[in-house]
């Protein structure tokens, strides 16, 4: 395995959630510069109303300048357990509370430049509660069947990576129809 040595590390920007770092590395005798974003991690929730219906949120995303259909998700607060973050985000964004949370998996969002690791939870035994979106969140709950969500992934109307991964994890688990390859 190739040895990588950090020769220099500088914080370029420290924001509310992220930190941008520029590092000079030594790899096989060569110096290279990399810029990476450190992120505390996040959760994604697949809220199942029954064996086939999922609660999504339509949410405005400034980075792409449009509303996207997504699974509820959120960033971990300092020292927060992932399951508690999932419960909090589900209630805040959708107005549903989960009796059961099951960890489905974990993945890196974009490991080429950001450390964000996301954990997917299946939420079941849902009961309604008052939603409490953050002031900067423009979210509207949308209920789709798993079959319809898979179709929207195939057509590109669901194009958010964490949502695609969450729906496919759920389908592969046996909750509803199996995913079909894109056409």
Mean pLDDT: 93
Cα(first) to Cα(last) distance is 39 Å
Can you tell me the CATH class of the largest domain? Alpha Beta
The strand order across the widest sheet is 7-4-10-9
Q: Sheet bearing the most strands, described?
A: 4 strands, mixed
Q: Helical segment tally? A: 3
Specify the structural class. alpha+beta
- Counting structural domains, the number is 2
CATH A-level architecture of the largest domain? Alpha-Beta Complex
CATH superfamily of the largest domain: Nucleoside Triphosphate Pyrophosphohydrolase
The fraction of residues in strands falls at 35-45%
- Remind me, CATH topology of the largest domain? Nucleoside Triphosphate Pyrophosphohydrolase
Topology pattern, helix = H, strand = E: EEEEEEEHEEEEEHH
The low-pLDDT segments are 176-183
The percentage helix is: 10-25%
Structure, explained:
There is one protein chain. By secondary structure, the protein is α+β, with helices and mostly antiparallel strands. It has two domains: 4-38, no CATH class; 42-173, Nucleoside Triphosphate Pyrophosphohydrolase. Helices cover 20% and strands 44% of the residues. The chain has three helices and twelve strands. The strands form four sheets. A four-stranded mixed β-sheet has the order 7-4-10-9, with helices on both faces. Helix 2 (146-155) crosses helix 3 (161-173). The longest helix has 13 residues, at 82-94.
């Amino acid at each position: 395995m190739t040895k990588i040595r950090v020769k220099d590390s500088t914080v370029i920007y420290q924001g509310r959630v992220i930190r941008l770092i520029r590092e000079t590395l030594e790899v096989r005798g060569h110096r290279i510069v990399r810029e990476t974003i450190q992120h505390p991690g996040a959760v994604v929730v697949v809220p199942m109303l029954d064996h086939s219906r999922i609660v999504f949120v339509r949410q405005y995303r400034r980075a792409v300048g449009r509303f996207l259909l997504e699974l509820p998700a959120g960033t971990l607060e300092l020292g927060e357990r992932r399951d508690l973050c999932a419960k909090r985000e589900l209630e805040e964004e959708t107005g549903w509370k989960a009796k059961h949370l099951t960890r489905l998996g974990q993945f890196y969002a974009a490991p080429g430049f950001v450390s964000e690791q996301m954990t997917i939870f299946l939420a079941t035994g849902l009961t309604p509660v008052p939603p409490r979106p953050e002031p900067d969140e423009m979210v509207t709950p949308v209920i789709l069947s798993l079959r319809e969500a898979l179709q929207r992934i195939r057509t590109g109307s669901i194009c958010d990576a964490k949502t695609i991964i969450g729906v496919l994890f759920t389908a592969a688990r046996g909750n509803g129809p199996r995913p079909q390859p894109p056409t």
